[in-house]
Amino acid sequence: MTSKADFLRRKTRRPSDTNVLEMQKFELVIVGGGLTTARAIKEYRATGGGGRIALLTRERTLPYHRPPLSKRYLRGESTAEQTLVEPQEFYDEHEVELLLGNEVTAVDTRREAVSMSDGARLGYRKLLLATGAIPRSLDVAGADLPGVFALRSLENATAIRESAAQTRDAVVVGSGFIGMEVAASLTELGLDVSLVSRDTDLFAQLRSPEISEHLVKLYRERGVEIIRGDQVAAFRGRSRLDTVELHTGRELGAGLAVVGVGVQPAVSFLEGSGIATDDGILVDERFRTNLPNVYAAGDVARFYDPLFGRSRRIEHWSNANYQGAEVGKVLAGADGGYDTVSTFFTESFGLTLKVFGDVSQHDDRVARGSFAHGDAIVFYFERGRLVGTLHTGQTDETEAELKRLIGTRARAESFAVQHQ
User: Fold this and answer.
1) pLDDT above 80: residue 231
2) Cα torsion for 212, 214, 216, 218, to the nearest 10°?
3) How many helices (H) and strands (E) does the chain have?
């Protein structure tokens, strides 16, 4: 069996090794090593894209799936190798030069080159930026104490899992997707978990009291203490975390804390490049930036969604999967681009929730069914037209119909859904 150390080292170049490649010109240079990258490579080659490909990522692992990090991998139900999007052989067969453990520090769009932290430079004919996002931190005392974690990478998840094996109580900060999934996983590992949310509603971004109240009840039944409308004032401890202090003055014992308060797009290395950014890298529906031969996709891209006529940035697996494949086609010179009803999902304590469309700017909402009974749909409307749904327990046929209705912007008074 491959050891973890061997897995991390395999086919990995040290940053100093890249000097031999300085200013070599690649047909395609990809910065970032996530799902978007792997999908782009696969579709680029499948569509006939030729030339040399270089993949640069600061992580020392091959591209991997992130959903298991808060679920199966965190709980010890899968290995690091099982999180990989593609095995090592995939990159060999697709003639990809893997430059793992390399951080890009700058992009020179005039000379069409990227600079790395060791001073080496690579030239490109086409550049794909898929750097994803980085977790936001809390600006409070003790935020850097050992035992306080964010969760974004495989390395983070491994450290949290190891820490969880050595403690009995944990605090999870944030009630979005990461916070809710981590709280459930740590509870299933046998820890006493408290979840702290500054919002009154859980999954506040969905603005659905129905799902919030159901989740409060579900999590409390599973032993999670839910603390709403409060925030962390400080993390306390001598050599490592032992207490989380809240604004209300309450103190929670904790040998482990996971902070899930959102992410920000990883764009700092683009300063001075001329590439336009605004809460992400700005691209059109074909993932093109404002500069020629530079593209962006995945979590870092603020893309134009023609269905809703506005720019969006989506931080979910299904979006990275879809955009990676589509940008691969575009890079190869074929037809491609954003043309779908977006979807994402989350799962905890056996409950799977799915969101279709864009619920961020709705002005009306109608709920049907019961989340407690595992059969519910919340319909979101904007100016009288369906723009999104939140649902659980629906058949494939119903889900296909929901996507069709969102895609056609069905009017509130005219659409009909066979609610299962």
Assistant:
1) yes
2) -150
3) 8, 25
C-alpha distance from residue 245 to each of 45, 195, 249, 270, 389 (Å): 52, 13, 6, 37, 37
* Predicted local distance difference test score (pLDDT) of residue 18: 44
Region for residue 77 given its phi and psi (left: phi exceeds 0; alpha: psi -120 to 50; beta: otherwise): alpha
Closest CA to 183 of 218, 155, 145: 218
How far apart are alpha carbons 345 and 355 in whole angstroms?
6
The predicted model scores a pTM of 0.91
The token duo for 245 is 């202090």
Q: What pLDDT, in 10s, does the model give residues 157-186?
A: 999 999 999 999 999 999 999 999 999 999
**C-alpha to C-alpha distance for 212 and 208, rounded to whole angstroms:** 6
Helix (H, G, I), strand (E, B) or coil at 147: coil
- Do 181 and 296 belong to one domain? no
| 110: nearest Cα among 331, 295, 284, 291 | 291
Same domain? For 185 and 243 the reply is yes
Same domain, 27 and 169: no
For residue 236, give the H/E element and its range.
strand 232-236
Residue where the block lists tokens 């269905």: 307
Strand segments, DSSP code E, in 7-120 are 25-31, 53-57, 96-100, 104-108, 113-116
Q: Is 238 helix (H, G, I), strand (E, B) or coil?
A: coil
In angstroms, the CA 356 to CA 368 distance is 16
pLDDT of residue 13: 45
Judged on CB neighbours under 10 Å (0-12, 13-18, 19+), 140 is middle
Q: Is there a single domain that holds both residue 74 and residue 193?
A: no
Same domain, 29 and 124: yes
The answer to whether residue 342 sits within a structural domain is: no
Closest CA to 331 of 44, 25, 129: 44
Overall domain count for the chain? 3
The DSSP code sequence of 64-93 is B-SGGGGTTTTTTSS-SGGGBSS-HHHHHH
| CB atoms closer than 10 angstroms to residue 407 | 15
